[in-house]
Amino acid sequence: MTVQNDLDRYIEEGKMVTEEKMTNELRNLEIPEQLKQSMLYSIEAGGKRLRPILMMASCGAYSSDRSKVLSTAVALEMIHTYSLIHDDLPAMDNDNLRRGKPTNHKAFDEATAILAGDALLTYSFELITQDSRLTDRQKVFLTGSLSQASGPKGMVAGQILDMDAETKDVTLEELETIHMFKTGELVKFAVKAGAFIGNASAEQLTYLDEFAHYLGLIFQVQDDILDVTGDPEKIGKPVGSDEENEKNTYPRLLGLDGAIEKKHHYVNKAKEALENAGADSSYLMLLTDYFSNREY
Amino acid sequence: MTVQNDLDRYIEEGKMVTEEKMTNELRNLEIPEQLKQSMLYSIEAGGKRLRPILMMASCGAYSSDRSKVLSTAVALEMIHTYSLIHDDLPAMDNDNLRRGKPTNHKAFDEATAILAGDALLTYSFELITQDSRLTDRQKVFLTGSLSQASGPKGMVAGQILDMDAETKDVTLEELETIHMFKTGELVKFAVKAGAFIGNASAEQLTYLDEFAHYLGLIFQVQDDILDVTGDPEKIGKPVGSDEENEKNTYPRLLGLDGAIEKKHHYVNKAKEALENAGADSSYLMLLTDYFSNREY
Q: Which residues form a coiled coil (chains A, B) (predicted)?
């Protein structure tokens, strides 16, 4: 098997177990049908499931048993999904489509979409606390880190900064601050939680935090680059929409070549940190290139 | 000191320590200013703080040190506050005023209000996990129970059922189901969490659960009664607004006398359960009458 085939299979498998677990958990909930359907709708609307896959790879770098991360990986993906539902609302980005399908508030209604988001967020904490394979100490670390990463010090801060920045020009530093909060904190949580469950040491976790920091930035630079050079079929939206919407992006601030150069710099930094993290990090290395070169 | 004075002082003190802790926690957060201000706005907009006071009384029934519940009490009040912010949104109840002040989305904007609610909900879990006075076992129980009580199996279920019921007539049984989810689960959490932190036994917790069940219902019947017989000055809204809005209420289904009778029945059941819970429950007894007779 080639390395590429192996990675593809690894990603596909991670996606599958994540989706199966998410769907099962939600289907088995005894809750009002309208609420269940709207939660399931957004969870089953697809997605790359990169955060759960990253968490599995991070755990696998330190432990042969990756399956222990599953409920935490699902909790993280549910929080990511809730953030998309609320982001799409008329009062926020006012999007009618996501991944080619009507957004939650279009398929249901605004009130239901708000509540489905609230429910996914809240349920994610329940999922972790009820996992019998985790110790109390692990549960406290995981729920504590997840609430920090997704709350007012993390993702929600990023969303409010992002809204604020829409109406003005920002510096590269400001742009990166927004990204670090809005998407970086959850990427960091994915890496940190996986390694923690895999029993990485405190020193290893510090290097992984640095790795995840650069990985989050790579993810964002590539997003911006794809909006310039991508295939509209693959990225699922017209090319050039960022420029049209005058969004602050890496190519806008650095030019396309500058953005690509920046990305390569971050890839090197990420791999350097990973080497210091002393682990069997082959899948994390491969995923770094995958994040950097992805076409959608 | 008379019993009434003593209870008044007890309530006032519980309110004060809750409000002081909430404000301090939020003021000390290093987060974007707009987000902080909108979270503080709703937290400082007043409120009876009945849930935190109830949690303190429940802890005090089993332990001489009530102060250990404080972060959990604050977390619960933050979740209650988030639910009001989201409830008031245009897509939900579309209310412009709460407690005589502009609702969060009126004072700020809709996007900020949605995010302030999300942030309060998420931060409440962080608060509990970071309390150095609680053991890991306690934190897991508390975050797990709180997410259950406030998520899709609890409060959020109640909100979606309530929305659904607005457009039709419901039976008394259906009405009580909605209330048990929408407000009852958080009342139950308040009682259960307090007693748990106070080291009540599993058997005692079962009786307290029954007590809290009736207490939640008492709270709701009295709310409905006040809408008929209350003083508009004290309840902060015109009398008869439920009837005008054709809301499903106890007086509507049972008549005013029937509703009052129902309430007294619940008070007896609550006190009976409390007596079985084997504790120094004098404040819980007093609070039961207080809930039942409150004028606002």
A: none
